[in-house]
Amino acid sequence: MLTTADKETLRLRYLAERDKRLRPDGNDQYLRLTGDLAHFVVDPYTPRTERAPLDDFITVVCVGGGFAGLVTGARLRQAGLDVRVIEKGGGFGGTWYWNRYPGAQCDTASMVYLPLLEETGHMPTEKYVHGPEILAHCQRIARQFGLYEDALFHTEVTGLAWDEARSVWIVATDRGDRLTARFVVLGTGPLSVPKLPGIPGIGSFLGHSFHTSRWDYAYTGGDAEGAPMDRLADKRVGIIGTGATAVQCVPHLARACRELRVFQRTPSSVDVRGNHLIDPEWFASVAAPGWQRRWLENFTANQSGGEADDDLVMDGWTDIARRIRARVEALPPDARDLGALLAAVEDSDFEKMEEIRARADAVVADRETAQRLKAWYRQLCKRPCFHDEYLQAFNNPSAHLIDTDGKGVERITPDGVVVAGREYPLDCLIYASGFEVGTDYARRAGFEVTGKAGLTLSEYWADGMRTLHGIHVRGFPNLLFVQPTHGANLISNIPHNIVDSAATIALVARHARDNGCTEVEPVPEAEEDWVALVRSGPESLIGGADCTPGYYNNEGRESRFFLGEGYPYGPSAYFEYISQWRASGTFAGLEFRR
Ligand code: NDP
Fold first, then answer.
1. Same topology for domains 4-32+195-269+345-431 and 57-193+437-593, yes or no?
2. Is the CB of 191 under 6 A from ligand 1?
3. Strand runs (DSSP E) across 367-447, as ranges?
4. Which of ligand 1's atoms lies nearest the C-alpha of 550?
5. How close is the Cα of 551 to the center of ligand 1, in Å?
């Protein structure tokens, strides 16, 4: 039990650790992977083949072949519309196409993370399945719903422009295509553009290097299925970054390399994973019709403060919410005010983080290393991690933590990496440095969207996102977004947002088709009201001004940055609201035109 003085000490420590990491350049500290760095994003998994440009018409173009494009494409096909997915990768899968690093695994339980399990009849093999199974599931969805037929892979959209005379979108690509489509679905993903840290000398390294989202198995040996990386046995390998990706791949590197150096700027909080195989008998006992919807609703309610009698998933995501609820429920009803709620949140967080820090001491043999692996911030300041081999990896004599005390790597030289004036010679340097989050939508998507009267989306969103339900945008008819912001904004399980938006989009597109409508667009007042509603919400528990910098708070510059705005009454309430909106059949707020 922490005393008042203990809590104050922790608050001060958290602030001091944050201050150490604040930097004036924010997101500008990272490099775009273009020009001399463009080779970092070349697809190492599928050879690119040439094809002739296309100029045909299709009812729906889905930009992005990850979960968003797959699930929305599936629902649109079920609604009887023709769909073409355009994807920059060499196949379906999105995040799971690109991220094939060793140990890649979902961090949210498979039963709720993998979309369309019921429709595809797939039983996940583990509570948290590994990357290859998720990629195979993506391919399964694409096959089952006929999405391979018209798909264009290794194709990047370069521009989207609304043709007012014909009520169609003109879709231009880097293959010279000039397609027309009645609707365009944008499922480009929140974290799809890899970035590198702007460390002085980064271009000078003469050894081998790659980003984790383009894992070079030709160099390391092994494969994404878990075969050992035998070509690293005589190699000195460095990895920059200790976020969710590094937490999953470091144990594999520690086993494979002659010597591994993990360059850390901010430690992740690494809680217990508790993975296990799924027993087919148990699965059969829970998988009655409608099971996945029940699980999704239950996880969301547990994780984000909704009403739930039981906790089906029971893991690190729901644990903190359980603790907060228990504290609040222990109070007399008339004492459950905002102050008491915030105190319950803070106390639960201190308790949780103390446990996670104690875990480092319990697991890591070297005292100094254990100390440096401890995270000094609130659990939801950064993406929480869960792993049962990451901390343990530092007990492997080949693995060394090189802590930069919040400063980051000082310099990269032709031979290796410099921290605090000491050079660490390396044969291979791996960047687990994450993805662009805080940059403009058009920069991350890779193209500009030009709507009615030549207005671009960048112009329209210059002062922030404006949508109805996170899906429709005034001035951009028939353009449909699949993403969490302005909607449920459920960050702990992105696919739940996607599955739900896909249902709305399929319904809207089918209604337009059935009624001979060529345009659908939100009415101005509906969009204005929605924007005002989502901006009225309370401060989020994710990120925050007092948090250590990271992509959750725009590198320490904007407290609600990543989470942005969402339905102010929470994810469960949004799903309930939008389900009633769909069921009403009135399409309130949308204008359908012939
Ligand atoms: P992150 O952005 O989380 O991590 C990047 C890492 O690079 C951080 O540790 C960062 O330190 C470090 N870094 C950046 N610049 C420097 C520098 N100059 N010197 C030293 N270190 C530096 O990227 P990830 O790829 O790990 O994860 C991105 C997101 O992808 C996750 O947060 C998660 O949402 C998702 N993900 C999901 C997984 C799943 O569900 N299974 C698995 C993996 C990722 P600092 O913290 O100080 O900025």
1. yes
2. yes
3. 385-386, 399-403, 411-412, 416-419, 422-425, 428-431
4. 48
5. 9
Q: Rounded distance, CA 301 to CA 324, Å?
A: 13
List the chain domain ranges: 4-32+195-269+345-431, 57-193+437-593
Instruction: Establish whether residue 241 lines the binding site of ligand 1, counting it when its CB lies within 6 angstroms of any ligand atom.
Output: yes
Of all protein residues, whose CA lies closest to atom 3 belonging to ligand 1? 243
CB neighbours of 308 closer than 8 A, spacing ≥ 6? Answer: 298, 301, 302
Per-residue pLDDT tens for 79-97? 999 999 999 999 999 999 9
How do residues 136-165 score in pLDDT, each as one tens digit? 999 999 999 999 999 999 999 999 999 999
Q: What is the pLDDT of residue 515?
A: 96
Domain 57-193+437-593 CATH superfamily? FAD/NAD(P)-binding domain (3.50.50.60)
pLDDT (average), residues 499-513:
98
- Whether the pLDDT of residue 302 is over 80: the answer is yes
Q: Distance, CA 22 to ligand 1 centroid (Å)?
A: 16
Contact between 234 and 221 (Cβ < 8 Å): no
3-state per-residue secondary structure call for 178-221: EEEEEEEEECCCCCCCECEECCCCHHHCCCEEEEHHHCCHHHHC
> From the alpha carbon of 244, which atom of ligand 1 is closest?
26
324 ligand 1 Cβ < 6 A: no
> How far, in Å, is the centroid of ligand 1 from the Cα of 55?
40
R_g of the chain, CA atoms, integer Å: 24
For the domain spanning 4-32+195-269+345-431, the CATH number is 3.50.50.60
